[in-house]
Amino acid sequence: MRKFGLIILLAALTLILTSCGSKDNPYSQNQSEDKTLKVGITQFVAHPALDLDQKGFLDQMKEEGFIEGENVEFDIKNSQGDPNLAKTVADKFVADKVDLILAITTPSSLAAAQATKGTGIPVVFIAVSDAVKAGLIEELDQPTGTNITGVYSADPVEQQMDLIQEIQPSVKKLGVIYNAGEANSVSNVEKIKDYLSDKVEVVEVTVAGSSEVQAAAQSLVGSVDAVFMPQDNTVMSAVEALIKVCQDNDIPLYTGDTESVKKGALATLGNDEYDCGRQGAVIAARILNGEKAGNIVPEEIRKRTLLVNQKAAGEYGIKLPQKVLSRADEVIK
Hints:
It contains 14 helices and 13 strands. It is α/β, with parallel strands linked by helices. It has a six-stranded parallel β-sheet with strand order 2-1-3-4-5-11, with helices on both faces. A four-stranded parallel β-sheet has the order 7-6-8-9, sandwiched between helices. A three-stranded mixed β-sheet has the order 10-12-13. The N and C termini lie far apart (81 Å).
């Protein structure tokens, strides 16, 4: 009888533990119900840096055990740089009752945050420079208590300006091209002006769309010693036109984006966007495995890369300092 009683007790404990696990862990519950999870990915615009964010996310999700076609479906949408379309995409994900939204860039994250209000659908943001100023979160180092968390990637603006002055000490006027409608760009340009206030004159040119980038660049010809392109989605999507104008007129171009250096800009200390995507996937996996988004502290991007283009420097007649070459993560020749 004593043995029989022990068996009954173990069976009861197993039933209780199984029940608790299903309640607290939605992913376990979904697995037991053989349900495929739905993850909506909203990307504001297509360009190499943001494409790397998405690729890093998908690669890391696979490593976390979320296999497309087996236990998860990824619905990937691109808003083509249109804030209204970003809102439409976010609304669609809410209507589809996705299990999580990955939002790439500030405009996509803001649209997802607005659309998911009151729904409880978790949002993970990446490629967002200033998550507090954008209004996505209230504090950097605290759990949000909401349905939103993610990876913020403030551009290392001061180090980027130091790099320009180290490579080109003679710079007195620096042209900056950006979209004034992008909150992250406005924030970065303000930081640039504050940091260079007593050293270098900043000449600003704003654009409203990628089709205006070439004309904006041409307006700086003859009036600046170098051009800097911050992490601006609108300008980055037309970087080829900017590079051509700068090369045709011998104006060294610096950027906040590593992929643009590979295309012909001179140098950057930039965020590693592929790794940023992977970092966001680790957070997403934690949520899909049962943690609440509001309990996860937003993280700062963990990896940055110093990239220089020696070939482009030669075309601009600039000899890169050995100190820069020695500490570069990659030198394009």
